[in-house]
Amino acid sequence: MIEKALIGSRRYWTWVIALLILIAIGAYAYSQHLIHGLVVTGMSRDVSWGVYIAQLTFLVGVAASAVMLVLPYYLHNYKKFGKIVILGEFLAIAAVAMCMLFVVVDMGKPMRVINMFLYPTPNSILFWDATVLTVYLGLNLLCGWVALQAEAKQVPPPKWIKPFIYLSIPWAVSIHTVTAFLYAGIPGRHFWLTAILAPRFLASAFAAGPALLILLCLLLRKISDFDAGDEAIQKLGTIVTYAALVNFFFVGMELFTAFYSNIPGHMHTFEYLFVGLHGKNALAPMAWISMLLGLFAIVLLIFPNLRRNTNILAIACISIFASLWIDKGISLVIGGFVPNPFERVTEYTPGFYEVLVTIGIYALGALILTVLYKTAIEVKKEAAK
Amino acid sequence: MNENRRDFLKKAGVGSLIGLGVVSAINVATEEEGKASTRSEDTSGTRMGMVVDTRKCKEDCKACLDICHEIHNVPDLKMPDGSPDIKSEVKWIWKEPFHNAFPSKSSAFTSESLNNREVAVLCNHCKDPSCVRVCPTKATFKRSDGIVLMDFHRCIGCRFCMAACPYGSRSFNWQDPRDEANSGKMIGGNDINTEFPTRERGVVEKCNFCAERLAKNMIPACVEKCPEGALVFGDLNNPQSEIRKVLKENNTIQRKPELGTGPSVFYIV
Description:
- The complex is a heterodimer of chains A (about 375) and B (about 270).
- By secondary structure, chain A is mainly α.
- Chain A contains 14 helices and no strands.
- Chain A is globular and about 65 Å long.
- With about 270 residues, chain B is of the alpha+beta class.
């Protein structure tokens, strides 16, 4: 089936080549890591994880959000998602692939990555994160591909695939829970040491992921003959609305606990993120943009009449996606390192090559997504004939 | 603690003794004393530790820092203007003002001499080290004598241990620590000590309580070099050791003991 991705319009190939160029630039930037070491990034002794691990965290959420299509379709027999459930699974594949690359480029000794499995260490959450992500990638490849193959042959999917589909539902929850445990289980980093981190991760994931899916559906409607259908898109809009509300409710709970208890360690990072600490506030503009975009999106989403307008829904989805990307893809990880264990503030700005590598990995993810979506759409087109 | 709770703890202790055998006998012993039990109160086996007498430590003296970094091939990374490169620096033992080393123990009313006193900080070789717990490859591990060590050849450079260490004791080699232009030297000018490995870039490192010297029946270099005798090293679990004598005779504090890591470095203030 994948050969269907090799035939496309001029516009399709222009897009693919543009992505390939970005990937090549990213690969060149990564060669600078291999030549000079991670010194070319903006990371430091104090802020020892930066945008790479932050992107991992965000994209695990995007990957997990496939469950928001799989669950209603397979468990509740919500037929309207039948057409787009494959889009969710394929988005998960691209997102997990990016996650894995972000882990590898962040490593000081990437050539030793296999040590994680040569010396499996069950007490390390990173070991479990690598394990659950690998299995989740396999599950989505299997479920997505088998379902698509059945569609191509115009037969119902084989029965043996069902257990794997059902397994993928709790597994999606597990990948984001384990990712939250990377942070929520370590002593001395008060910003992360909160039992609500995993629930908050899931809420923000189920807002950001489906928001991206809506945008992708609207894009496909514009550039191809594939139409997800208004009802499916609106249902996704409802999911985004509830998840976004729950996410901001959780953020409010974090703020209450930190500021009402008045415990300095619990307030410091919030202070740093929003108003600055010790006169340093590099992330403050981002934090405010994130907060305001999120609230703006909620205003647009909460009124059904507003979000029924596709253009307004699109604006709301762009806003909430950007808001949650800043929240998880920047503030959460970097903020957690401020202040350092000596209560000093060291700020972080990504390095030039670090930004290029990040763009390169996103381009690779976009390429995987393009190829998979192209295949799926062509298969569906032929099946419809 | 009220009697009911104590009874409950005793019963729970006895219950776990039946269930888990000998290991939990230690828990019961601590619970008998009416204190909440934590694993860090277990005093069986060997546990190497250190006492830092901050009163004896002289402000301008850097003897312990210099000898440690010299013999362990730690590079001295500087900015072009000569100030320390706080982004990439590698350090095993260094000095911090008291209020930075003990943020929760300093206030506006702490004596000025204490608040600004420079105290030596290093890896605490914790009893329950969070760095060891999070390492995905067992590249950092706790030896039977309580010393937390690094395997530089297994470390994948994920830096999870740096996030997990609440003491900022760990450094990463963001770049090659050896001076490329000047073979035989580390960055910063120290000669390479061929008795101890140099690191490649991309791995984490920290104080090792001079494990390589202990193997030769020598004490840690910082302890040996300190002209004031401000550092005492020994087995915390041995009631006859010198370090136990010092701990018995002085009030000491640990850095962030509330986190349950069980730091093995104690401070006299």
